[in-house]
UniProtKB/TrEMBL annotation, chains A, B, C:
<dbReference type="InterPro" id="IPR036922">
    <property type="entry name" value="Rieske_2Fe-2S_sf"/>
</dbReference>
<dbReference type="Pfam" id="PF00355">
    <property type="entry name" value="Rieske"/>
</dbReference>
<dbReference type="InterPro" id="IPR017941">
    <property type="entry name" value="Rieske_2Fe-2S"/>
</dbReference>
<keyword id="KW-0560">Oxidoreductase</keyword>
<dbReference type="InterPro" id="IPR044043">
    <property type="entry name" value="VanA_C_cat"/>
</dbReference>
<dbReference type="GO" id="GO:0051537">
    <property type="term" value="F:2 iron, 2 sulfur cluster binding"/>
</dbReference>
<feature type="domain" description="Rieske">
    <location>
        <begin position="16"/>
        <end position="117"/>
    </location>
</feature>
<keyword id="KW-0411">Iron-sulfur</keyword>
<keyword id="KW-0001">2Fe-2S</keyword>
<keyword id="KW-0408">Iron</keyword>
<keyword id="KW-0479">Metal-binding</keyword>
<dbReference type="Pfam" id="PF19112">
    <property type="entry name" value="VanA_C"/>
</dbReference>
<protein>
    <submittedName>
        <fullName>Rieske 2Fe-2S domain-containing protein</fullName>
    </submittedName>
</protein>
<dbReference type="InterPro" id="IPR050584">
    <property type="entry name" value="Cholesterol_7-desaturase"/>
</dbReference>
<dbReference type="GO" id="GO:0046872">
    <property type="term" value="F:metal ion binding"/>
</dbReference>
<dbReference type="GO" id="GO:0016491">
    <property type="term" value="F:oxidoreductase activity"/>
</dbReference>
């Protein structure tokens, strides 16, 4: 059906991509490849983060093999010192600094404990930085620092994340549900995102819910929602709340809520950085539960990577993405179509 | 001399290839690549074996990552269920099964403890399944389940197996014989096979023969025969029998006989599945001897793989197969010429 | 700046390349790739070394998988025996030796404990074999058998070896000197070599010098010289001698001298054999010091390989060698230009 060849390398460039957890960058520079470009991340004098092309313009040594000195990055080969804007500010052995002694720098922001890098040539758009109202708020417990390296193009990851139907089979050991009744049915397309959700009213609480709270013999209203802010932010919410209430934020907070975020950053056309964090409004101080929860999520994402990386290999082998379409493809297909539109728009703008 | 480029990928397709030992396929599907095609093998409801292309038509997940359910194969990603003829018989989440929801299936037979797969488009030819009259018969001991993965094109393996002259040098630690007197001299070409043999009459029994039977001070008539049913079945027989008798099957059974079979299945143009079994009519219940025999055969085939895989690399490096021809090339050359003829015939038929 | 594509594979062929330490070749043949050609080295009947193309002309088995027999090399597959001039002198199973049964042989010399191979088609030029007057002389201690496999084109290695400026940064744990005052300033170009040196008169001895000899509170005259005989011999000398003397060999021997040699042999366009030896005229019998010295040199060369192999990858990735030039590039640039001239001369001669 669909060919893979023509968009293998198609990335949206004017976007904030999660590059690292802030705590990954300490006193040593960090090498990370994003959209096929190699970056060196390092701490600046002001306590922020700098992001430079990971290649000294002199002999091409990776700057990430150098040292963080005085808020700059010093090449480990001949000692050229660069500041966070990519200017060379010292060349050992000579006073004159050539105008060619410079490297590309990338705009950097910190948010949600993550370092975000703007990869495009357009002006960085602050409004596009992801925000999570509950992040850091009282009443919410945070699992963070989640990271996996996935061996698949980010489109395969998007299909996976917009597709709850697979949990019954791929994740039957973890979050799978034989009934698969939680599949959202309403799908909405917005300017840069796709969302799908479903409310099941007056339904028995799940065994998992019962484990977290005593609902007695009562029923709950249960919601599952999936959304994807393209090209990289996946958000899944599950909420079980007392029946008969309006579906407001405040009322939802009376129930059990979990907010699961994944931030996808293409490393190159075959690999994806998979950052994740998880918020919940219950069992806040239950450490044993939290360890079990983290292990379960990690296992689930490992299962996703196993199938995604196998699909990556098959797509490259046969040059196709699929040979038959199903009803469950509805949301993933909408997401990829919107992505294609966004990429085409960006490229049209760049040419104009 | 001969170029390698033009037939690197030339396989005979209308043929039964050994795909697996039957006992390799239990409750889990088995992935195996044959002629560059990836197959998933699995047990069917009737106790047989199904062979499907190892790729779900939906998202291309390998079916071998799925489960054997109800005699079918269920994709591990979204649960599509396929039967042994490749038809999709269930799609979770919808009642309608798209006509495109199907995969290629391969004819399968079981024989000699092995699973055989027909890789061509022509009607499977039952008469081409290999048979061994002594297999399973009383008076014969069987070594089976032999398997090695060899890193060479199957043509290099054919040359090796039709060439007893190398045993003196390559296998000097195992079956090598400094005198190399056992080399067959008569070579015959048949429709799909090459055979070569030699009888040495009234010759002293080998030390190995003496170890297996007390010949007194007497002499034996000794035969070595090599044959190759193209493209994949190698058969080597060694027989030491009392002198002066007619060379009938019954009389040969009075002596020491070993029948050594190898079944070659190209995995791709650079790798070959090497299945083997071994029959003998002596020391039937000698377990210690049998262990030693198996270890010796395994070591011999490892030596073959070492040189074959080195040759594979050299052939690819220089684009040639050889620069000088020798007398010992007679049988291997006949075998490869016959193979070329068979491939050309098959391709001419396919076009016609 | 400079493109890498056009000279990636440009080697000087008419040259003696270090192929192995003599003691690497004992009773087994040694496989080594030089300028992309695979050689088998083996001991001859006369106690010398033979060098043949590592490929039997019959089935292409590597001769290095064979055996050293009677001063020749016997193929491990079918037993063809070759002498050191590449002629086949025995074919098992036949009396006639085909004229095509031969392999290319390479001229070989032994010097400085190393085996040298002439890779070109021109007559071997004995005068080009490297010589070291102090090698084997009384009063000098020798560290030899040094070898590392470096994952970079030899040009990157040449730049590294002609560039003392990097020691301050790359080797700050070992031989680095924060002041970098030892950088030579005078650079000379000769017919096939580049040399650079600097005398610092009446300077305090280094801590390292003081460790080796008690200079009291006195001063020394200190010299550092670098030279490179293209394409493969690097020589670095450091000398600290009493002040006020003429700079003759005899007077230099009154001081502390170290002579450091590296012999580069391109394995292929991405890898370099890095042989090294080291001579000193002090602490001749100090075993503990010698062990420490060897370990320090090995670590330094490992650091060189780390940056060189990273640069190799970057050069291939972007197709360039550098984007800005510095003063410290003077000597390396002269060396590579001379190398280009030599390669062009050799190729012009070959065509003519």
């Amino acid at each position: 059906m669909t060919e893979i060849a023509d968009y293998k390398q198609a990335f949206i460039r004017n976007n904030w991509y999660a590059a690292a957890w802030r705590r990954e960058i300490d006193t040593r520079p960090l090498a990370r490849t994003i959209l096929g470009e190699r970056l060196a991340l390092f701490p600046t004098k002001e306590g922020g983060i700098g992001a430079l092309k990971d290649q000294c313009p002199h002999r091409l040594a990776p700057l990430s093999m150098g040292e963080c000195i005085d808020g700059g990055l010093r090449c480990g080969y001949h000692g050229l010192l660069f500041n966070a804007s990519g200017a060379c500010i010292n060349v050992p052995g000579q006073d004159f600094i050539p105008t060619t002694a410079k490297v590309k720098s990338y705009p950097v922001r910190e948010r949600l404990g993550l370092v975000w890098v703007w990869m495009g040539d357009a002006e960085p758009d602050e409004s596009r930085l992801p925000s999570i109202p509950q992040h850091g708020e009282p009443g919410w417990a945070l699992l963070q620092d989640g990271y996996q390296h996935h061996a698949a193009n980010y489109r395969i990851e998007i299909e996976n994340l917009m597709d709850p139907a697979h949990t019954t089979y791929l994740h039957k050991q973890t979050i799978g549900n034989p009934a698969a009744k939680d599949v959202p049915v309403q799908v909405e397309r917005n300017e840069r995102s796709i969302s799908a959700f479903r409310w099941m009213e007056r339904t028995p609480p799940s065994p998992f819910d019962k484990q977290s709270r005593d609902f007695g013999d009562g029923l709950v209203d249960r919601m599952v929602s999936f959304s994807f802010e393209l090209p990289g932010v996946s958000f899944v919410e599950v909420c079980s709340m007392p029946t008969g209430l309006d579906k407001t934020e405040d009322n939802k907070n009376l129930g059990l809520r979990t907010l699961s975020y994944k931030f996808l950053t293409p490393e190159d056309e075959r690999h994806t950085h998979f950052f994740w964090l998880h918020l919940r409004n219950h069992r806040l101080d239950d450490t044993a539960y939290e360890q079990q929860l983290r292990a379960g999520l990690e296992k689930t994402y490992v299962e996703d990577n196993q199938v995604a990386s196998a699909i990556q290999i098959e797509q490259e082998r046969c040059g196709k993405r699929q040979f038959t379409g199903l009803k469950i493809d509805h949301a993933p297909t909408m997401a990829l179509r919107l992505l294609d539109t966004m990429i085409a728009d960006e490229q049209a703008t760049a040419v104009a």
